[in-house]
Design brief:
- The protein has 399 residues and is an alpha/beta fold.
- It is built from 12 helices and 17 strands.
- It has 2 domains: 18-34 and 294-398, Aspartate Aminotransferase, domain 1 (Alpha-Beta Complex), CATH 3.90.1150.10; 49-290, Aspartate Aminotransferase, domain 2 (3-Layer(aba) Sandwich), CATH 3.40.640.
- The strands form 4 sheets. A 7-stranded mixed β-sheet has the order 4-12-11-10-7-5-6, with helices on both faces. A 4-stranded mixed β-sheet has the order 1-2-3-15.
- The chain is globular and about 70 Å long.
């Protein structure tokens, strides 16, 4: 018999009643260190006082009017994102998938506005994850997400990640642009080489096509920069953002240059809820903190500290851990055991982490973690490895 909640998730047998900073509390008062942050969403930790204040203030005033009218919070947030980034304009959505959908439509519309509507294909890369809509699962190209949903939507050509020769060969008269994540998150914390990102920018320029970045997971400070592409000194034409932008409140954004957005005239795109007053209040509250002097620098410092400790752990537990990947506070441990075993062993140590592709365990803590939290997580990983090793030895002895 089907459950009232559609059983589409393989949920852990855990539930939480409240949170504070980087911790989650169960109804019975058990305290878990959250190094998953709701899949890189809870950027400022749980129950951040500033976010509570701005949300409560706005909730007492106005929740929703629709985009038939001007929304002051949208104007303010857009201006701040434009000032802090490459972009000239922003469209607000409710989620990352919607932000990527907007980016896909914008890239196609750009070429249509230039008299080339046949340019409607985006080149994407293996291991990518761009969302759960029919278009975005087709863009990602992973069979496990496509299976059972019929034919792939046209308009996407996939090549191996890092293969610039294959990328160049895939560009043709129907190519609109290249869509990629600077660090593949669901794909296993797989970063692009910075030189490759620069080369892709040059390839796009030479071919007259757009560079579209999916920074849904990497953006809003996750790598220690507002957006991860800043590491390479590369400027995209279009960028999708979400997750950390709302600190836990559903919100997304599609950022673009004036040139890339030229086709998006009134009536070409829309959203009933996107950019409503509640979401804008919270997202502006997140930027209040993330854009403070020194905040991103501290994220980089904490990320380096955590990465160094994880590298030492990998050396000490080379039978279980293979390597460390990532930037800032978007890090991954590639495992020699099944990654779900390490996730479960970590949960037993009251620390939450998240699995990913390529047999990787992701560490995505809130950006406000300090050395105490980092040390607690590292100790828990060490204890989890010891428990896995002891369990394996016990099973071998029982044979």
């Amino acid at each position: 018999m089907i459950t009232p909640v559609l059983p589409a998730y393989g949920r852990a047998d855990l539930e939480f009643e409240s949170g504070e900073g980087p911790y989650l509390l169960t109804p019975t008062g058990e305290r878990y260190l959250d190094f998953g942050a709701g899949v890189a969403v809870v950027s400022l930790g749980h129950a951040h006082p500033h976010l509570i204040e701005v949300l409560s203030t706005q909730a007492a005033k106005l929740w929703h009017t629709s985009n038939l009218y001007r929304i002051p919070g949208q104007q303010r947030l857009a201006e701040r994102l434009v000032e802090a980034s490459f972009a000239d304009t922003v469209f607000f959505t409710n989620s990352g998938a919607e932000a990527v959908e907007c980016a896909i439509k914008m890239a196609r519309k750009y070429h249509a506005a230039n008299g080339a509507p046949e340019r409607d294909e985006l080149i994407t890369f293996d291991g990518a994850f761009h969302g759960r809509t029919l278009a975005t699962i087709s863009a990602g190209g992973q069979e496990k997400y496509l299976e059972g949903f019929g034919r792939r939507m046209p308009g996407f050509v996939q090549v191996p990640m890092g293969d610039l020769k294959a990328l160049k060969e895939a560009i043709g008269p129907n190519t609109a642009g290249v869509l990629l994540e600077p660090i593949e998150g669901e794909g296993g914390i797989r970063p692009w080489e910075l030189t490759s990102l620069r080369a892709i920018r040059e390839i796009c320029d030479e071919a007259g096509i757009l560079l579209v970045l999916d920074e849904v997971q990497t953006g809003i400070g996750r790598t220690g920069h507002l957006f991860a592409h800043e590491l390479a000194g590369v400027t995209p034409d279009i960028l999708a953002s979400a997750k950390g932008l709302g600190g836990g409140f559903p919100v997304g954004a599609c950022l673009a240059t004036e040139e890339a957005a030229k086709g998006m005239t009134p009536g070409t795109h829309g959203s009933t809820f996107g950019g409503n007053p509640l979401a804008m209040a919270v997202a502006n509250g997140v930027l209040d903190i993330v854009l403070e002097d020194g905040f991103l620098e501290r994220v980089r410092e904490k990320g380096l500290h955590l990465k160094q400790k994880l590298a030492m752990l990998a050396d000490e537990n080379s039978d279980i851990l293979e390597s460390v990947r990532g930037e800032g506070l978007m890090l991954g441990l590639r495992c020699k055991i099944t990654n779900t075993d390490l996730v479960a062993a970590m949960a037993a140590q009251k620390v939450l982490v998240i699995g990913a592709g390529d047999n990787v365990v992701r560490l995505l803590p809130p950006l406000i973690v300090d050395d105490t939290h980092i040390n607690q997580a590292v100790e828990a990983i060490s204890a989890a490895c010891a428990a896995i090793r002891a369990d394996k030895k016990a099973k071998e002895g029982a044979k």
